[in-house]
Structures are given as structure tokens and as C-alpha cells.
Prior knowledge:
The chain is α+β, with helices and mostly antiparallel strands. It has 5 helices and 8 strands, in the order ααβαβαββαββββ.
Amino acid sequence: MKALNRRELVIGAALLPFAGNTVHAAVPLPTMTVSKDPNCGCCGSWIDYLRADGFAVEVVERTDMDRIKSELGVPADLQSCHTARIGNYVIEGHVPADAIRRLLTEQPQATGLAVPGMPASAPGMDVPGARDSYDVVLFGAAGARRYARYQGRRKLAG
């Protein structure tokens, strides 16, 4: 995984006022490493979604997903099917791309983000007709709190 260097962070921060919704084009993203069960189709769909949104993704297929979640500090009540690392953060489940970008920009003191379970309308699930809303949860040593709320790929609040 490549962390952003100081120069990239300074340039990215300087461009933020001009970026509007194109922040992801101005700031290079670190490579994301996704651990997933080889038999999980929705994990592959989420990875395709992230790649289409500009993320570089490496995939590690493994059958010991409970162990990786435990090692990375994902609480049992926040777990989903796949677990990723990007920069210094853990991404658990079907987290929307813009929530990951926000995390990388804001850099809060946290372990990472999670979308618990497998909401039918979340990126990578994309069940036709699903309109459920779901929370993206920021978690870490200080506990867990809502970071954003979505319906499908549309941000509702946060």
C-alpha cells in the first residue's frame, strides 16, 4: 500500500477549494487491498464499482475472513463479507466510494469505516428495486458512530 507523501497531501489540500465534486481526480488515492472469500460474488461487484470510480484495487482471496477481521479490529457487530485496507484505514463491507474519499481527506482518528451486514441497495449489492437506507459507521478506539447515511449510492446525511 502506498501512503500519500507530504507533497501530494499539500497539493491536494491546496486544490480542494477548486475541486467541487472532482476531488478524487486531483488527489492520488493509495492502493486498496481487499480480502475476500473466493466464492463471494458481491465482493467482486464492489471491487468493480471501486475500480470504475478510480480506485486501484488489489485482491487477496482467503478463506479465513474471521481471522483477518479480528486482526484488523473490526467489531463483530460491524462485520460484513469483505475487508479492505487503504492507507491507515480498514474498510469493512459495501462502503460507498465517496465515503472512503472523505475518510482519506479528513483523516479522523479511527480504525476505519464499515457498512454492517449486506444492505440490498449498497454498492456491489445493487439488488434491483432495493431502496433501503443504511449507515456508514466510523469505528475505532473511541467507539463507533454514524459517519454518513445512504440510500443506494446516494448520500442522505453525514
